[in-house]
Design brief:
Length: about 700
């Protein structure tokens, strides 16, 4: 057995194992569901079984043996039946000539199978002197008719069938064409093409994948080659064609003789190196190849899945600003890469509404420095959403169909590099304008380019709108912070003004009393200090209250607040001995002053207000009690601590909100217990100094 025969036997074994496994896998799939999705699924299983038997015969007896030819007849009958069931149905029946050809071919196969089986059973083998030629004739007729049926079936059903089913028909055609080639060579030369016959198992292996792909594709959309696979396939076909040309050139050179062989080798080497170098070095050549493949080998120019993944990845990338640029540059780059443009400019509106260049991607920065898109032109693009083909404008056409005059400025049409103007719209509001560089090679825009750029522009607009909204929100937050601080200042100034006004009224009656003058001086000092503190708090660099926390004796602080409120109301104070809070003294005093002021305002004249302080659970508890009008539970839960909500006429509604914020900043809080008509109790909770190891030394010293 020669090396080629050994290789043929190995390939036969591999083909038999592959088809046997495929047959078992197909048989294990749910028959009812598969038949509903592919009516010809049963014939596909039958064809796989016949291919398995044929591979077993080639493994046992050899590809050219009469036994293998009998198995070939069975295989061909199953393949013909699958073709008829797949490409023709009751709605689109097969023509009468084709139906006659199919029935005749199936009859030949079945007769050959029956006679071959009878001879085998009767004689225990085939007399090769007469069996092989007869079976070969049947195989040649079947292969010829099968190719005719494949051609007719593909043309008949390609518009409505999935690509894998067409691939199965193509696999059958490849096998029949190869066998027909073998039979024709034998008929013309009078000798068997043993080399080609021994390679039949290799052709069978090439048919195997289409069975698997066809069964896997049932119920899914049409399957197509990716652009990468298609491009590589074209390159491989080109390489194979190049090798064939070299072989033909060598054969011609041998026939002619002389030095033509050396010349042919030199020319082929020059052509190979030149073609490879051109593709590697020239972006224009690569672009031309890509466009050619897209035009002639794909239903659509764009691989939408791959392009959209790349587009969104470019927009979302936040890398080095020096290399990747900001969002504006990434938007220009993403739109340019969609159409193969080598560069792009992005224009944004200025204060007057005109659009000026804000960023560039691979576009000369010196070009268009003073360029602008007038407001009138931008308004036309915004209203129509039209993508402008600048080549059409240069030929004299309108920039926007239906417009009275071209809306594109002269500097843009004068720049031959400018190719397309894409308005980037967000809810009919134009966020930006992108100008794309002319690709290499240049081509005309079509409907697919326009659709892709339109939807990509809207997607990019959402990114730009979000970025602009974030910037506006950040600026609004800064203004809001300033306004919030100013509102708190106004609230405290109002309280100070009320206190000073009360002091002025009492001065008219009690100015001659020494004790009143002493209280007045102390009150003025406190007010001046409060005003200085308010100015410091207005600064955006104000430190947080928690940073000033320190051990704070509670009783002196409560006594000071009571003394301050004495001109308005007598406030009684009760405090546990040596009680201290871990807090900012000014913040605690501000909270207590506000709560006591509210208690006085809510109470009738002469009603008592109490300040009580004690330890509870490792915390300091300060209660402010009044016998005022009280509050409902709904008001406490939903409105009391909200800013700008007040029950006082002319009130700012910020005191309780600010008091709660100060308490929480020090690690404390405020509780409220109140009922309408029964008064209120506000409880300020603060961390106790010395609790949990805080300032134990200070507590011992105290």
């Amino acid at each position: 057995m020669g090396p080629l025969a050994s290789l043929s036997q190995i390939l036969s074994g591999v083909a038999f194992a592959g088809f046997a496994g495929t047959l078992l896998w197909l048989s294990a799939r749910p028959r009812a569901r598969m038949a509903a999705l592919m009516p010809s699924f049963g014939w596909l299983v039958a064809a796989a079984a016949a291919m398995t038997l044929w591979c077993a015969a080639t493994l046992a007896f050899g590809p050219g043996a009469p036994e293998a030819l009998v198995a070939t007849a069975l295989r061909n009958a199953a393949m013909l039946a699958w073709l008829g069931a797949t490409f023709w149905n009751a709605r689109a029946p097969m023509s009468r000539p084709l139906r006659l050809i199919q029935r005749m071919l199936v009859t030949f196969c079945l007769v050959a199978l029956a006679l071959g089986g009878a001879v085998w059973l009767r004689a225990g083998g085939f007399p090769p002197e007469w069996a092989a030629p007869g079976l070969a004739v049947v195989a040649m007729l079947t292969a010829s008719g099968g190719l005719l049926l494949v051609d007719s079936g593909v043309r008949h059903g390609s518009a409505g069938l999935r690509m894998p089913l067409l691939a199965v028909a193509g696999g059958f055609a490849m096998l029949w064409a190869y066998e027909l080639n073998i039979q024709l060579i034998g008929a013309l030369t009078g000798e068997r093409a043993d080399t080609l016959i021994l390679l039949l198992p290799a052709v069978a292996l090439l048919v195997l994948p289409v069975f698997v792909v066809a069964a896997m594709d049932v119920g899914r959309e049409r399957m197509r080659l990716s652009r990468t696979a298609a491009t590589r396939t074209i390159l491989l076909i080109g390489g194979a064609g190049y090798l064939i040309l070299i072989a033909l050139a060598g054969a011609v050179a041998r026939l002619v003789g002389g030095d033509y062989a050396e010349l042919a080798q030199s020319l082929s080497l020059i052509v190979a190196l030149g073609t490879g170098g051109l593709l590697l070095a020239s972006a224009r050549a690569r672009a031309w190849l890509s466009v050619t493949i897209s035009k002639h080998f794909f239903e659509h120019r764009y691989d939408y899945r791959a392009e959209w993944m790349r587009f969104t990845a470019t927009l979302a990338r936040a890398g080095n600003e020096d290399t990747d640029g900001g969002l504006y540059r990434r938007v220009a780059k993403a739109l340019a890469e969609l159409t193969g443009s080598p560069g792009a400019m992005l224009m944004l509106p200025d204060a007057q509404g005109d659009y000026r260049v804000a960023d560039r991607w691979h576009w000369d920065s010196a070009a268009g420095t003073e360029a602008e898109m007038p407001l009138r032109s931008a308004f036309m693009l915004q209203e129509t959403g039209h993508i402008v083909d600048l080549d059409a404008v240069r030929r004299g056409g309108p920039a926007v169909p239906g417009a009275a005059d071209p809306a594109i400025p002269d500097w843009l049409t004068a720049d031959a590099r400018a190719w397309v103007v894409v308005p980037v719209l967000h809810f009919q509001r134009m966020i930006a304008i992108v100008v794309l560089h002319r690709p290499a090679p240049s081509r005309a825009l079509d409907w697919e380019d326009l659709d892709v750029l339109r939807i990509a522009g809207r997607q990019a607009a959402s990114y730009l709108a979000e970025s602009q909204s974030q910037a506006a929100l950040s600026e609004a937050k800064r203004f809001d912070e300033f306004n919030r601080r100013f509102a708190f200042i106004m609230h405290d100034i109002k309280n100070l003004a009320s206190q000073l006004a009360l002091l002025a009224r009492n001065a008219e009656r009690h100015a001659d009393k020494p004790e009143f003058r002493a209280d007045m001086v102390e009150t003025l000092k406190l007010s001046a200090g409060r005003l200085s503190d308010l100015l410091a708090r207005l600064s955006p660099r104000e430190k947080g209250r928690s940073a000033d926390a320190a051990p704070t004796p509670v009783e002196p602080l409560l006594d000071a607040v009571a003394a301050q409120m004495r001109p308005r109301r007598i406030v009684s104070v009760g405090c546990a001995t040596r009680l201290a809070a871990w807090a900012d003294a000014d913040a605690v005093r501000q909270i207590v002053e506000h709560l006591v002021t509210n208690a006085i305002d809510a109470s009738p004249d002469g009603a008592p207000v109490q300040l009580l302080a004690a330890r509870e659970g490792g915390r300091v508890r300060i209660d402010i009690l009044d016998q005022g009008s009280g509050m409902s539970r709904a008001f406490i839960e939903s409105e009391l601590f909200k800013p700008f909500v007040s029950t006082k006429e002319g009130g700012f509604g910020l005191g309780a909100f600010e008091a709660l914020g100060l308490a929480q900043a020090m690690g404390g809080g405020i509780d409220v217990a109140s009922e309408p008509g029964k008064g209120s109790r506000f409880t300020l909770w603060l961390p106790e100094a010395g609790a949990g190891g805080r300032n134990d030394d200070w507590m011992r010293a105290a």
